[in-house]
């Protein structure tokens, strides 16, 4: 009972935090992405271009949709919690659905490939990061492949928010990932990130989605990337 | 929203809902757009979709034309059939309307072609 109350309270805090420091921030900054041409990261582009023609792909947390039309021989469905970002992607001619990575409104095993680029680091607890990854695995068909990128602890530049102290109910910020005490109150839109240590992302996938086998892990663009495959044919 | 997208959507993310598939479509604005026909793409897509659900969705929007209700085993060689399938999967776009949960009748709005599947706190 007390445990349940604790869990509920933690969930409420986590939701409020993600609302304020993830969803609101993306909604408020979405217009910067209108007409923006951000370059696809080459390794993500290469992965998408290597897919079999006619593959069904889901880009969960697609943002303004920079990965939705890399490969014209597959169908890619974008999905994001931010309605303004979805609308920008849709205006570029993409198919998108506003939905939450924690509860994907797709039937089991319906996608050949799922990508999640820079999204799971926005969940504030390990349970929520695990739940987000589990959902990615659930919608993949047997033999289907998953590519996940998440912000790495082992990187030098950029100012990122790294954590939330649940007992003190305080967020702490840092410049770079090494000095967690320095704050930067001048930042207008503070986004919450969890920074992943080497092996952490793969470890979560192995623990929480046992039906996935890790094919590759590497460091790229200050992120850890894991490519994994769901068992079965 | 294309009918290909509709073919994958379910409302069983709502707390307590067991059967959220397929979602009913209530459309107030449907548009037809042109998409390049690629027979190989369509041939590969067919085994991944739920044919019955596609057929019923197309019918409910009045765009099934003479699309067969059952899949014919030799569809790969049938260009006419592949073209019709291409049309219902990719060219019919629901711009405005609702997706309706088959169990609870909960409506998910489709606005400017985008379905919104976010839940309220009490539905989680
Ligand atoms: C760093 S951006 C990455 C966007 C895109 N994948 C890219 O690489 O350009 C993170 C995205 O995750 C989305 N996001 C955050 N939390 C989410 C959630 N719970 N469900 C779905 N999307 C979410 C944000 O709205 C934002 O578009």
UniProtKB/TrEMBL annotation, chain A:
Domain spans labelled Methyltransferase type: 59-147
Q: Which UniProt keywords apply?
A: Methyltransferase, Transferase
Signal sequence span is none
Q: Which SUPFAM superfamilies match?
A: S-adenosyl-L-methionine-dependent methyltransferases
State a single Gene Ontology molecular function: S-adenosylmethionine-dependent methyltransferase activity
Read off the InterPro entries from this record: AlkB_tRNA_MeTrf/Diox, Methyltransf_11, SAM-dependent_MTases_sf
Origin: domain of life: Eukaryota
Q: Which Pfam families match?
A: Methyltransf_11
TM region(s), chain numbering: none
A single GO cellular-component term on record: nucleus
Protein's UniProt name:
Methyltransferase type 11 domain-containing protein
Automatic annotation (TrEMBL), chain B:
The subcellular localization recorded is: Cytoplasm, Perinuclear region; Nucleus, Nucleoplasm
Gene3D superfamilies, per database record: 2.20.25.10
Keyword list (alphabetical) reads:
Cytoplasm, Nucleus
User: Which Pfam families does UniProt cross-reference here?
Assistant: Trm112p
Q: Which family does it belong to?
A: Belongs to the TRM112 family.
* The keyword Transport appears for this protein: no
Which coarse location class applies to the principal site listed for this UniProt protein? Answer: cytoplasm
Which GO biological process categories is it annotated with?
Answer: rRNA (guanine-N7)-methylation; tRNA methylation
What's the source species for this entry? Capitella teleta
- In its UniProt entry, what is this protein called? Multifunctional methyltransferase subunit TRM112-like protein
């Amino acid at each position: 009972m007390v445990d349940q109350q604790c869990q509920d309270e933690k969930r409420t805090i986590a939701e409020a935090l993600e609302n304020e420091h993830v969803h609101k921030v993306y909604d408020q900054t979405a217009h910067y992405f209108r007409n923006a041409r951000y370059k696809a990261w080459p390794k993500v582009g290469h992965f998408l271009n290597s897919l079999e023609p006619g593959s069904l792909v889901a880009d969960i947390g697609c943002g303004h949709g920079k990965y939705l039309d890399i490969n014209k021989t597959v169908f890619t469905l974008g999905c994001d919690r931010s309605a303004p970002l979805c609308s920008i992607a849709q205006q570029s001619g993409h198919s998108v659905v506003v939905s939450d990575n924690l509860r994907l409104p797709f039937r089991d095993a319906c996608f050949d490939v799922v990508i999640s680029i820079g999204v799971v680091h926005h969940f504030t607890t390990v349970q929520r990061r695990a739940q987000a990854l589990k959902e990615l695995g659930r919608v993949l068909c047997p033999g289907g492949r998953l590519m996940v990128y998440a912000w790495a602890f082992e990187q030098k530049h950029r100012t990122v928010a790294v954590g939330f102290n649940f007992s003190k109910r305080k967020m702490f910020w840092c410049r770079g990932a090494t000095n967690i005490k320095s704050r930067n109150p001048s930042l207008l839109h503070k986004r919450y990130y969890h920074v992943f240590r080497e092996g952490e992302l793969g470890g979560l996938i192995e623990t929480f989605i046992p039906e996935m086998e890790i094919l590759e892990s590497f460091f790229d663009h200050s992120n850890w990337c894991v490519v994994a495959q769901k068992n079965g044919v | 929203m294309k009918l290909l997208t509709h073919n994958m959507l379910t409302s069983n993310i709502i707390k307590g809902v067991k059967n959220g598939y397929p979602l009913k479509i209530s459309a107030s604005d449907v548009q037809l757009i042109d998409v390049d026909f690629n027979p190989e793409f369509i041939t590969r897509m067919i085994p991944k979709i739920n044919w019955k659900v596609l057929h019923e969705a197309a019918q409910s929007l009045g765009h099934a034309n003479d699309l067969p209700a059952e899949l014919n085993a030799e569809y790969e060689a049938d260009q006419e059939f592949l073209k019709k399938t291409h049309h219902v999967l990719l060219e019919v776009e629901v711009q405005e309307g609702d997706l309706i949960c088959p169990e609870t009748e909960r409506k998910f709005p489709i606005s400017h072609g985008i379905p919104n599947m976010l839940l309220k706190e009490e539905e989680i």
